[in-house]
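re: ur question from yesterday

yeah so i grabbed the chain u mentioned. its 78 aa long if i counted rite. heres the sequnce exactly as i have it in my notes:
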Amino acid sequence: MPMAPVTCRNCGARVLVRKSSWNQTSVQWNADASSRCAERSLYGRELFLACTALNDSIVAAVRHGDLPIVDETASAAV
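ran it thru and got these structure tokens back, copy pasting raw so excuse formatting
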């Protein structure tokens, strides 16, 4: 399953996301999203692990049916 766009409800950063399971999420940032993210800008060049606002937006996208969870989609197809 390809990555899907998700927009942060806090800052408007648009990233590509693949949700393999509730515990595993892959996020692909681009330059525009990196510059928009309010939490990411606080870290400068330091290690940045996750944005809580973006995580909340990803969870909301899953709950609203806009972002499928790959494991659940595969299980439903069997």
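noticed a couple things. The chain has one domain: 4-77. also Residues 62 and 68 are 6 Å apart (CA to CA).
anyway ttyl
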